[in-house]
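Why do we bother with holo predictions? Because pocket geometry can differ from the apo form. Keep that in mind while you read this record for glutamine.
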Amino acid sequence: MTGLDPLRLTARDAKRLLVDGEISSAELAKVYLDQIAAVESKVRAYILVTTDNIAKYSTKVDREMQAMRGPLAGLPIAVKDNMVTEGVTTTAASRILANYQPVYTATAVRQVWEGHVVMLGKTNLDEFAMGSSTENSAFQVTANPWDLSTVPGGSSGGSAAAVAAGEALWALGSDTGGSIRQPASLCGIVGMKPTYGAVSRYGLIAFASSLDQIGPLTRSVYDCALLLQHIVGHDPRDATSVELPEPVALPSAERLDGLRVGVPAEYLAAGIEPGVRARFDETLARIEDLGGTCVEISLPHTEYALPAYYIIAPAEASANLARFDGVRYGYRCADPEDLTDLYERTRGDGFGAEVKRRIMIGTYALSAGYYDAYYGRAQKVRTLVRRDFEAAFAGVDLIASPTSPTVAFRAGSRTDDPLAMYMSDVCTIPANLAGLPAISIPCGLSDGLPVGFQLIGPAFSENRILDAAHALEGAIGFDTAPPFADSRPAEAGGLGATRPAEEGQS
Ligand code: GLN
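The structure, written out:
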């Protein structure tokens, strides 16, 4: 079967074709393998394409289709390479894990595998998910399919670019300060960070444990709900995981009657590009057209969220990354003289500049004498940010903002300016600090590049967010197919181009 457009096909439609017998799982997987062959040398979304696994597993799904009637069976997925996968190299885009073979599989990935989803491969990211452009990967720079000279956002830039480029039907990412929503925004797709705890973090390589959440990157809000359904749930292996009070429902809403949407003045105060602001204002008008009301609200501690995040996240990272010592995981330097030399050279060679910067900031913030002044204070700010949201949700159902203050920026333009890079997440970080669910949906173009619209809800309001986003998506009618504007020559790929595929699902 041909004629399927991987730039527009949704999981919902692919499922229908599979169930109706119009296409086999192997044929569907081939649609993505062909697209990977056609565009991956330009996009470089994957660190590893599990080619052998794709062929073998999709054929198995076809053979056993009767027994595999799960709602996701046979649908191919890309997985961010900071989720461990048994028998499949998992790198977190770091030299220190370049050859790491996990002996177990992250719960969220296992849940989709058990739904007989076919894993296409592992996608590129900023090293250990630290960044907003995917340029901090130790292996390759991923390009944004909307303009190959711009970044896909980050840190889940590989997952977002793979979906936007039609190299995956959908993908899993992780979001610590915006790493699902911001790349979704820059790549013109849907991305959702669930309520903290809704999805197990077991097997997600830890960056900042009190902020990290796994979530979907998809071409539609419906697909987002469909994937989310399969990854939520309490996991005894993650002490912070919780059961959602109600199951994730597949959205069908077309109207927003009675919905009260708050627009925080502080989010619009500074740094929002005019083109982003214009699409945002148009989308607020659509909310009113659909029967909702938009009111200005205040989240007074917003300006302190970013600085608090950049204490808390590095502090937790410095503790989490202590385990990469050359003894237990991955890379070890050659011929160490003694234990100190082993640690120093392994970590010195193994970590990239941004990771080292975070370890140093975090170690400093946690050190004796500074703990109360920095970390303790940042945690107090976090409480104030959470209370701002609680107070706001007494008066509104959802909060709306642009996802990112700008559209995709040119590769290299912020790499020498960490603060400019950190500002990319100014609208997404508060939801992580407060543990709240939030979605980004595409709401139009500015200068030919996608603009994202963010909806934040109270804890466990996934269904409310998905319903509202679904209605809005229908009214916006965004076309997810990028033009592949090519303003930069293709270079040789990174590891994805050279590595042999490894065994994954069995
Ligand atoms: N860009 C933010 C950071 O660098 C968020 C990253 C993330 O969400 N993983 O920390």
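The pocket of glutamine is lined by residues 129-132, 155, 175-179, 207, 313, 425 (CB under 6 Å).
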